[in-house]
Design goal:
By secondary structure, this protein is of the alpha+beta class. It has a single domain, classed as Gcn5-related N-acetyltransferase (GNAT) (Aminopeptidase), CATH 3.40.630.30. It has 5 helices and 8 strands. Strand 4 and strand 5 form a beta hairpin. 25% of the residues are buried.
Length: 179
């Protein structure tokens, strides 16, 4: 099932990946600064191209359990600045893994990840009717840990990574408090 609409924020568009996004995707995925927290088997052009193809394949899946979306500026949908996703495959019914990644030039800029996260979380709870979202971060990635906390995720446990959880009810209560 393809996403039948784009998710629009004040400054961004979350949309299905297009084949012509591959070059920009591989470029940011292989940036040495971007890959600092990645394992060796997650590195390189060939791996980035495999992941990109997986995202395209997910778009054609039926039923669809995984949504990995391209992030573009609202005024230029041909420019790829990152990706974000909700992945239900392999999760408990009603739960999904959540994630946002931005190309290095967009790190730490004007609350970009917060804006994108809020839109995707809202879409997951409102449109997909999820009961909870799960996220993981590398211990050293303090920026992503701060993003998880700012979105309302609560750290649940740690293993080889830190794990985070956000219940639908906590999200709804948070949105009500924010007006």
């Amino acid at each position: 099932m393809r996403l039948n609409k784009r998710i629009i924020t004040r400054r961004f568009m979350l949309r299905e990946f297009l084949p012509e996004d591959v070059e920009q995707f591989v470029a940011y995925q292989t940036d040495p600064a971007f890959t600092i927290f990645h394992r060796q088997d997650e590195l390189g052009d060939a791996q980035a191209q495999r992941v990109f193809q997986l995202f395209l394949d997910w778009q054609e899946s039926s039923p669809r359990y995984n949504y990995q979306l391209a992030i573009s500026p609202l005024n230029d949908d041909s420019k790829l600045i990152g990706s974000c996703g909700i992945r239900m495959d392999g999760c408990v019914q009603g739960e999904a893994v959540f994630g946002v990644e931005l190309a290095r030039p967009y790190w730490g800029r004007h609350r970009y990840p917060q804006e994108i996260s809020e839109a995707l979380i809202g879409w997951g709870f409102d449109e997909l009717k999820l009961s909870a979202l799960i996220a993981d971060t590398a211990f050293e990635n303090t920026a992503v840990a701060r993003l998880a906390e700012s979105a309302g995720f609560v750290r649940t446990h740690a293993g080889d990574k830190q794990w985070w959880h956000l219940d639908r009810s906590a999200w709804i209560a948070r949105r009500a408090r924010q007006g």
